[in-house]
Design a protein that fits this description.
Elements lengths: L1 H13 L5 H8 L3 H22 L2 H5 L1 H20 L4 H29 L8 H26 L3 H22 L24 H23 L1 H9 L4 H25 L1 H25 L2 H28 L6 H30 L1 H25 L7
Length: 383
């Protein structure tokens, strides 16, 4: 039930991805403004993580998860009653706040609720729920936008129904935080203890490159497909974005066989190959090549993401696990927002194709550098 709630909350954050082109036609804004709308979401995530990342450690997991679902429902209502840009911005901010509450809290809750026999797979369940939810949003919205008569409204009605079921599920799960004050304490700065930093730093480095790629696909992928590749069907754009996250989940499954020490650098290497394929797809306007590049990039991101979260989680004190996980996600959501805004700024003067090529080169360089550093200083077995 906790994993289902995680999926639903993350699904709501990416639902607008295949709909941005429709909003562009309806409201007449540019691809740059699409990236700004997306970045506003990331700002909401980061604010929630910074101010409330440790909240569930003191008041409990369930109250924070319920608050995140309420914010997700308010976001869906903002899009449902959209009349212009103010509602779009409000919906994205609320969605970001919801995701910020959920990422660290739900990851910790799923790990803590897992039966002892599932202990080795608990982190996989949590990260797969995260990535699966993020990937399900564009697929669901793309299919509804393609075949439903009123896509800009019906998709959010479906989302509200999913959120309502998730609320019931969270109300039924047990609380896993035993020592809690039950009151809201003054937010404190997220802090990573020195004993956790040897695991945290490489996880953050590898995660930055992977999440920058996810940010590109969840913000301007429909614009790339329409303006560069010549494919404008929302079902296709939603499926392409879903492919990245499905591949990420596959990479997370593969990490169990590869191991943390090898998954972090090799995930970066595979991500480099994926970015090379994506750049080739932009040069040749090839949809199949773009899909293959999305799969490769997703697998690489999934490998390094699960390896990083696993290593950070196993070296974190239980009473501070949500706080440290939230600190990691702050880094990842900086990666998912700032580079994408850079793409939007470049697109105004250079065009989407050129900005996409520059972005691919920068991410590939960062991932390659991270792989070299990880091989020079491998992940420690013990903190």
């Amino acid at each position: 039930m906790a994993a289902y709630a995680f999926v639903v909350a993350m699904c709501g954050t990416t639902l607008p991805t295949p709909l941005y082109r429709m909003y562009q036609r309806e409201l007449g804004f540019s691809s740059f403004l699409v990236t700004v709308i997306f970045a506003v979401y990331a700002v909401g995530v980061i604010v929630a993580l910074l101010l409330l990342g440790q909240l569930s450690d003191s008041v409990g997991r369930r109250p924070v998860l319920l608050a995140g679902l309420v914010l997700s429902a308010l976001s869906a209502l903002s899009f449902l009653f959209e009349r212009g840009l103010p509602e779009l911005f409000a919906g994205r901010v609320l969605s970001g706040l919801s995701a910020g509450l959920f990422t660290g809290t739900a990851t910790a809750a799923v790990v803590e609720l897992a039966p002892r026999r599932w202990a080795g797979s608990a982190t996989l369940i949590a990260t797969a729920a995260n990535m699966g939810g993020l990937g399900s949003g564009p697929l669901l919205a793309g299919l509804i936008a393609q075949y439903a008569p009123d896509p800009l409204h019906q998709v959010f009605i479906v989302d509200l129904a999913l959120v309502a079921a998730a609320v019931v599920g969270v109300l039924l799960i047990p609380e896993t935080v035993r020592d809690r004050s039950g009151t809201f304490t003054r937010p404190r700065r997220l802090h990573v203890p020195p004993s956790v930093r040897p695991a945290f730093v490489p996880a953050a480095m590898a995660g930055f490159a992977g999440f920058a790629t996810l940010g590109l696909f969840t913000s301007v992928a429909p614009s790339f497909l329409s303006e560069v590749v010549g494919v404008s069907e929302p079902a296709v754009s939603g499926t392409v974005v879903f492919t990245v996250f499905a591949a990420s989940t596959a990479g997370q499954l593969l990490m169990g066989r590869v191991g943390v020490r090898r998954a972090l650098p090799w995930g970066c290497v595979i991500l480099v190959a994926g970015m090379a394929l994506i750049a080739s797809a932009l040069l040749t306007a090839s949809l199949p090549l773009l899909v293959v590049g999305a799969v490769a990039a997703g697998v690489g991101q999934g490998l390094s993401f699960r390896a990083g979260v696993t290593d950070v989680g196993r070296h974190s004190p239980p009473e501070r696990r949500a706080e440290i996980t939230s600190a990691l996600f702050v880094v990842l959501y900086v990666a998912i927002s700032i580079p994408v805004v850079g793409v939007g700024i470049m697109a105004v003067t250079l065009g989407l194709r050129q900005s996409g090529l520059i972005f691919s080169g920068c991410v590939a360089l960062l991932a390659a550098t991270t792989a070299v550093l990880l091989w020079a200083r491998p992940v420690r077995r013990d903190a």
